[in-house]
Each structure stands twice: as C-alpha cells, then as structure tokens.
Amino acid sequence: MTQGRKTIETRTPGEGAPAPAAAEPIDLQPPRGTRDFYPEDMRRRNWLFGQFRETAARFGFEEVDAPMVENASLFTRKAGEEIVHQLYHFELHDRHLALRPEMTPSLARMVIARQGAMRFPIRWFTVTQNWRYERMTRGRRREHYQWNMDVWGEPGVEAEAELLSAIFTVLDALGLARGKVKVRLNSRALLEESLRGGVLATRPEAFAALCVVIDKLDKIGAQAVTDLLCDPAGAVQLSAGEAASVLEMLAARSLDEAARFATPGSAALADLRRLYALLDAYGIADQVPFDASVVRGLAYYTGVVFEAFDAAGSLRAIAGGGRYDRLAETLGGKPVPAVGFGFGDAVIGELLEDEGLWPALALDVQDVVFAFGEAEKPAAIAVASRLRRAGRRALLVLGTAKLKRVLGDADKAGVSQVWLIGEEERARGVVKVRDLAKKTEREEPLEG
User: What's the mean pLDDT when you consider all of the chain?
Assistant: First the structure.
C-alpha cells in the first residue's frame, strides 16, 4: 500500500498451485494532473459543455473535431517555447507523435487540407481534451478540456468583436454577473509596429523572443523581465534604457496612452479604435479594458490578443485568444486570416464553485418502473420499453429493492412518475402510476 494513495494488490494463482508472491500494487488514483469523472462530475461537465455548444450555435458556428494524437511537428513549428516544452510526445514506428496541447494547429491543418474547396469565412467551434505537462496550480491541470471558437477568412476586427461577444454570452449563461470577469485586450501588431520603429529597428527578428519574455511579466515581475531583456546571452539583448522604454510601453492602459508609442498612421491603432466602437455596439466595451502588457505566449499571434480573468485576480486566465493570420502559411498552406479563442473547463469550474453557481444536477430520469416481485418483472420490462419508445427517460429497478427507498431516491432525483406493478396489478392487467409532483395516483393498462 502506497502512503496517501489507495492501491489494490493483484495475484493470478495457477490452478492447484500455491499462489505466487503478490504483484506490484495498482495505484487507484489517476495520473497526477488528470481527473476521473464520476456521475456527479459528468453532470457538471455535460452542463458546462452544453452551455458552450448552445452559445456557439447561437452565433452560427459549426462543431468540428480532430485526432487527439497529431504529428509533433504540427505543434513545434510555430508555437513558442513554453508549449513545446510541455508536449506529451513519443516516437512510435519511426513517427514522432504528440498529444494535442491545444486545438488551433489542428484546425489550421484541417483548413489547409481543403483550402481550395472552402468558402470563407468559416465559423468553427470545438470542445476537446488537451494535454500539457505544466506545473500545476489551482485551475491548471495537465489534462483539461477547452472550448474553442474560430473564424477563418475574415481579416476585419468584426470577427474579434463577435468572438468577444460570445465569451460574455456564455459568462451570462453561466450566471456570472457583469464585472466578475474582465477581458484584457491588446494588439501584438501595435506592439510590433512600435518596437520595430524603436528599440528593435535594427533587430526586428528579436520581436518573437521579446514577446516570450514580456508574457512572463505578471508571473515574475518587472525586474526579472528587465533582467531577461538585458541578458547579454539572451535572445533580446536590450540595453537598460531600452528595456525601461519597453516596460513604459507595456504600462499603457488606454488607447490614448498607447498612441504615444505608436508609429504615425498606425494601422494597428486604427483597428483597435474600430474594435472598441464595435464592442460598444455589443454593449461590452466597458468589460474589455485595454492592457498593453497582454501579448499571449504563443508565437503565432499576429494582431489583437486578449485574456479573460476573474475580477478578483485569484485565478489564472479563464480564456484567451487572438488573431493568427500567418499560421496557415507557416504550416505550408496559403495565407488565410484567422482569429479565435480557447476557454478552459478547469478555471471556470473553480470560479463557479467560488461563486456558488454550479446548479444542482440530479440523475436525469423522468420515470421509474418498479416490480414488487419476480413474477412482475416481464410486465415491468414491457412498461419501461414502452416509455422509452415514447421518448421518455425511464429507469427500470433491477434486482430487489424496498419500495420506500425506490420512492425516496426517485423524489430526490426529481423523477416525475413511479410506475408500480405488484401481484394484484398484474392480475388486473394494470400498472399503478404515482405522480410525485402532484402527489396523485392513477392506473393505466399494462398493454399500451
């Protein structure tokens, strides 16, 4: 028995022979960072995923999926150092494969495969299981589910506005009051314009590496970020003065502040102003503060980027996304503008728990059919089958059970009706129907 974790010992004795020594105990806990989903957990998961799917459907998006195992190169070619180091990957039959850490590269692969026959824009959503070997904290797991919504083929910020509206639509559906979640927004295009017109004028190739460093700002602080930016052996190699100007730029919290660092006639700044006008039309502009420090860690982002956080700041990002116009081209396809977001199940689950917003979810059964004795079992089966053919969700009580417990369990689960068949009912060719909500009883023919 391993300390703190339940195990079970197994042995396989040969017939007529002494039992061999006990085999190594089986660890009954799931691998660290993963989860078992018991019925009560699955009810919550299905309810949450139902909110995701319903919201996507309201916005006219269609669901797609892809294999959980992909060629590892799909994720290493243009992902960023963090995600590459977190891959669950392996070699099998001379193939280097990986469990998907996110869905966007798989979507890009699917688009490229049918690029010549597709009519753009396309609106796709997914609800997928993903794997990253991360350091675990509250709301951060190595295996998690993620809802993605992506628009391919639309270059304008109308797509960003629509996706941000979808995020707030699902937050409303989950019962979270406005203000409980804020979506911080920036533009990597604006940052790139400003830096390449300034401290990176002679070294524009260092932009991607700089983004990787400044994405750590909230995690390690300004001084540590400065040290990395100025590291003479690092990929960025700024002077102390240049690093200070970058941090000053990242401190901008309004478009007017950001405009001080923008290049003349900045297209990225114009896009941001138009985006906020659209967000105002959706009624969510005040919920999406500008924050120049948001850059996102994945290297494929090219334009607007955003992250959703609980207002209290007690949890990691609830959702995040942005524009990735060059991803298809990087993976060997023709250029296609694209934007999307990922919304994880683990962090929002923690927030719903904190706010007491998980609904009470019982066994989803409408009818219970109970036979008092063995002789009544065939009749009970016939009743349950009839109900199921009619589209009802009917639970047939198996084996033997006490009526008091059957009625108590049915009432607790919110069951509408309990169908009771005893010796007398069978003899008369009827079934007694107890309506638990109305507290009435009636009889119906056994043969429907």
Answer: 90
